[in-house]
Automatic annotation (TrEMBL):
A motif ('HIGH' region) lies at residues 42-52. NCBIfam families: leuS_bact. ATP binds at residue 599. Its main location: cytoplasm. This is Leucine--tRNA ligase. The lineage of its organism: Bacteria, Bacillati, Actinomycetota, Actinomycetes, Micrococcales. It is found in: Cytoplasm. Gene3D superfamilies: 3.10.20.590, HUPs (3.40.50.620), Isoleucyl-tRNA Synthetase, Domain 1 (1.10.730.10), Valyl/Leucyl/Isoleucyl-tRNA synthetase, editing domain (3.90.740.10). It comes from Aurantimicrobium photophilum. It catalyses: tRNA(Leu) + L-leucine + ATP = L-leucyl-tRNA(Leu) + AMP + diphosphate. Keywords: Aminoacyl-tRNA synthetase, ATP-binding, Cytoplasm, Ligase, Nucleotide-binding, Protein biosynthesis.
Length: 832
């Protein structure tokens, strides 16, 4: 007979699928339940690689599964095609980013089609199309109107290699740029921001609604990133200054323990205070500030870093006891957290203690934290001045006037009450989250739709003049240089003021591409609508996304921004939900010999070569079979060749079936039917709990069972063999769509197998095999019954007593004892 040839099968089905477009999801009469299954869309950075192959294979298992469960499934794809990677790659090759990007998209599209991901190809979007980014500009304007988009002058993260600012989220924990790897420095610039901090509480609190639906790790990362602290704002009068200075503290209970104040050297306040001091102090401060600006935020927050600072020659007055506190500038206090100034309580805060010890400042204990013992039973001194360890724990307040004797918790409440009464403070909370810096000084992004009048006023581009299309690259120098290349496009940048026609200039910056991806899942719903960003009626039907699939690298940035913009659109009345992604699956990475694939390690496995050698189905199946989808896959440990052999075995079964389609399965071999129906019963639970690999294992077993049935007495003509082969084809479609379609055709069906609804398991075929139980009366077998092997004793006894033979034997006798050994024996004894 024929042999399994993956290349032939691929060539046969791809054009047929192209023609019948089995995955369109725009039939308005389709009333089945809907599922929106979304894979994070790719950057067009070269051809698809092994990481894509894994992500899209796993996402497709879920999309295909819901179709087989009779759902109307929306599974779209697009390209996140603006941004630095494309722009830098184009510059490096001396190409136009437009050409480079769209050539890559074409190549990825072709690869993706061949990879047979079940996308609805009628809904493709590219974020670099004016038809798409017009709506980024629209979104910006809606936010601008609400005061959620604004410009401010502040210290920003500056990537000296890419020559652009970065969002906080794009600075890695080691202080380097997520993109270029360069050490990020601080620069004071006027930039555009989205006011995400207005949403901090909601972004944090609503994470609770995602519990159990998103990976716990991602929820934790988001919570920490938002970082809410509860405490108080306290106002300190400054000698020689009209305005008091406010500090944020989580420990207002320790106010009596404050012995100095510290101001962030890079905060305007520090410069101002220094300016009022002696020339010596001014000079020392200026030198210090220069040093500080070389340090990264991460370095500044490191607890083990020696503390440095300068005395500013000024004093603050403690509002609770009138004490004079010297004011220092020190870089462990950050300019953009809280108010950029702290009341220092060295006894109970480690950083303050380190600083106090370095500069010989007083240490005053105000919480009596009991002395402890270490693991060897030694008493640990609780005096921070001696141990160098601040005592942050629980204890009773001392040396604190009205607060004396209170616990930490009660003292915090009381201190806030006192401050509020006196008008020198109030309850406050603070977030780690900063506003989202969205402007970039680069070409390949969405132009910011603002025009600057000569007098400096900002004029939003009227909505009917959108999109503001990027100028052609001809004549522009795209090399990173610290200001946007768009500023040099004279014809483009110089425009009449839309209000009075006077000379004005367009804003030359472009938006962070995370703006593009913050709402793209809505654009898929009406991708060709040129009258609105998305159709709210379609959003009602499809959104939010039921299942989102993508890498954990996006745990903070993209997911936080998308959640934020979703809430903004909710507030603006465009959608009726507040969380964009109901369920989230983070797939692992594909490694080679234990490490991430990289050019420098020379361990890159080329997807194209794998596909050439083993075929699409074997690669996809291998990705799904390697382990739980969340785990990394080491390509050195898996065998696409073995996957291929399994696919050939499965395929042969369909070739061998010799009954006709539509044959009544009822008369088929009972044992094989039972095996098939057990598989039908188990598979949905496995897929819905993301145990894709376990279902592959079950399919492998089932192919073997079916092969045995064909080769043994059952034979290829038995209806149970057809039933089994059809089930295998329908399930294999999740992983190996070409093979499944070819099996389906061999079994006499029309394409597409992807639309074959899995039959429900027949409960009659799920009952376990029965066991025969004998029933004795006074040692003699009087009857028998067939029961389930796991029958309960009481149940078995009750059934046994009703058997005709038993009833006859017991007639007129009195039962004295019944022994039940479920499921095999019931033994009844009567009175002699
Ligand atoms: C006095 C105090 C006493 C504090 C004490 C702590 C313990 P989180 O939890 O991170 O919000 N702080 C406030 N603003 C700061 C800034 N701009 N840079 C560095 N540190 C700052 O921490 C809040 C605490 O961090 C605040 O409470 C303040 O120190 C410090 F026994 O005030 B605390």
């Amino acid at each position: 007979g024929a042999t399994y040839n993956f290349a032939e099968i691929q060539e046969k089905w791809l054009p047929i699928w192209d023609e019948i477009q089995p995955f369109r999801s725009d039939d308005p009469t389709d009333e089945r339940p809907r599922k929106y299954v979304l894979d994070m869309f790719p950057y067009p950075s070269g051809d698809l690689h092994m990481g894509h192959a894994e992500a899209y294979a796993l996402g497709d298992v879920i999309a295909r599964y819901w179709r087989h469960r009779d759902h109307n499934v929306l599974h779209p794809i697009g390209w996140d095609s603006f941004g630095l990677p494309a722009e830098n790659a184009a510059i490096k090759r001396g190409l136009n980013p437009v050409t480079w990007t769209y050539d890559n998209i074409d190549q990825q599209k072709r690869s993706m089609r061949r990879y047979a991901t079940s996308f609805d190809w009628s809904r493709v979007i590219h974020t670099s199309d004016p038809e798409y980014y017009k709506w980024n500009q629209w979104l910006f304007l809606q936010m601008y109107k609400k005061g959620l988009a604004y410009r401010k002058d502040s210290w920003v993260n500056w990537d000296p290699v890419d020559q652009t600012v970065l969002a906080n989220e794009q600075v890695m924990p080691d202080g380097t740029s997520e993109r270029s790897g360069a050490i990020v420095v601080k620069k004071k610039l006027t930039q555009w921001y989205f006011r995400i901090t207005d949403y901090a509480d909601r972004l944090l609190d609503d994470l609770d609604t995602l519990e159990g639906q998103w990976p716990a790790k991602v929820l934790t990362m988001q919570r920490n990133w938002i970082g809410r602290s509860i405490g108080a704002d306290v106002d300190f009068v400054i000698e020689g200054r009209e305005q008091p200075v406010t500090v944020f503290t989580t420990r207002p209970d320790t106010l009596h323990g404050a012995t100095f104040m510290v101001v962030a050297p890079d905060a305007d306040l520090a410069s101002e205070l220094a300016a009022g001091a002696t020339p010596e102090i001014q000079a020392a401060f200026a030198d210090y500030l220069t040093e500080v600006q070389k340090a990264t935020e991460i370095e500044r927050q490191a607890t083990d870093r020696p503390k440095t600072g300068v005395f500013l020659g000024r004093y603050a007055i403690n509002p609770v006891n009138g004490e004079r506190l010297p004011i220092w500038a020190a870089d462990y206090v950050l300019a953009d957290y809280g108010h950029g100034a702290v009341m220092a309580v060295p006894a109970h805060d480690q950083r303050d203690l380190d600083f106090a010890r370095a500069y010989d400042l007083p240490i005053k204990i105000v919480v009596d934290v009991p002395a402890g013992t270490d693991e060897d039973g030694n008493v640990i001194d609780n005096n921070p001045a001696v141990t160098g360890i601040a005592t942050g724990g629980e204890g009773k307040l001392i040396n604190s006037g009205e607060l004396d004797g209170l616990t930490k918790k009660d003292a915090i409440a009381k201190a806030i009450e006192i401050l509020t009464q006196r008008g020198t403070g109030k309850a406050a909370k603070n977030f780690r989250l900063r506003d989202w810096l969205i402007s970039r000084q680069r070409y390949w992004g969405t132009p910011i739709p603002i025009i600057h009048a000569e007098d400096g006023t900002e004029i939003p581009v009227p909505e009917d003049q959108l999109p503001v299309v990027l100028p052609p690259t001809e004549g522009l120098n795209l090399q990173p240089k610290g200001s946007s290349p768009l500023g040099a496009a004279e014809d483009w940048v110089n425009v009449p003021n839309p209000i009075d026609g006077s000379p004005a200039r367009r804003d030359p910056d472009t938006m962070d591409t995370f703006v593009d991806s913050s709402w793209y899942f809505l654009r898929f719903l009406s991708p060709n609508d040129d009258t609105q960003a998305f159709d709210p009626a379609e959003a009602k039907k499809w959104a939010p996304v039921d299942q989102y699939v993508g890498g954990v690298t996006h745990a903070i940035l993209h997911l936080l921004y998308a959640r934020f913009i979703t809430k903004v659109l909710f507030d603006l009345g465009f959608i009726d939900f507040e969380e964009p992604f109901t369920n989230l699956l983070n797939q692992g990475m594909v490694l080679m010999e234990g490490s991430a694939m990289s050019k420098s390690k020379g361990n890159i496995v080329k997807l194209s070569e794998q596909l050439e050698e083993h075929g699409v189905d074997a690669v996809r199946l291998t990705m799904a079979f390697a382990g739980p989808p969340e785990d990394d896959i080491d390509w050195a440990d898996v065998s696409p060749a073995a996957s291929n052999r399994f696919l050939a075995r499965a395929w042969r079964i369909a070739q061998d079936v010799s009954s006709a389609p539509g044959v009544d399965f009822a008369g088929g071999d009972k044992a094989l039917r039972k095996a098939t129906h057990h598989l039908l019963a188990e598979a949905p639970g496995l897929i819905e709990s993301f145990k894709f690999n376990v279902l592959v294992a079950r399919l492998m077993e089932h192919v073997n069972v079916t092969r045995k049935a064909i080769d043994s007495g059952v034979g290829a003509a038995d209806p149970a063999v057809r039933e089994s082969a059809e089930t295998i084809a329908m399930m294999l479609d999740l992983y190996a769509p070409y093979t499944a379609e070819d099996m389906w055709a061999a079994l006499g069906h029309k394409p597409a197998v992807a639309h074959a609804v899995w039959p429900a398991a027949d409960p009659a075929l799920l009952v376990q095999d029965s066991v025969t139980c004998v029933v004795q009366v006074d040692g003699k077998v009087r009857d028998r019954l067939d029961v389930a092997p796991d029958i309960a004793e009481a149940d078995l006894e009750a059934q046994a007593r009703e058997l005709a033979g038993v009833v006859r034997a017991l007639e007129g006798r009195e039962i004295v004892n019944v022994i039940v050994r479920a499921p095999k024996i019931v033994s009844i004894a009567t009175k002699p």
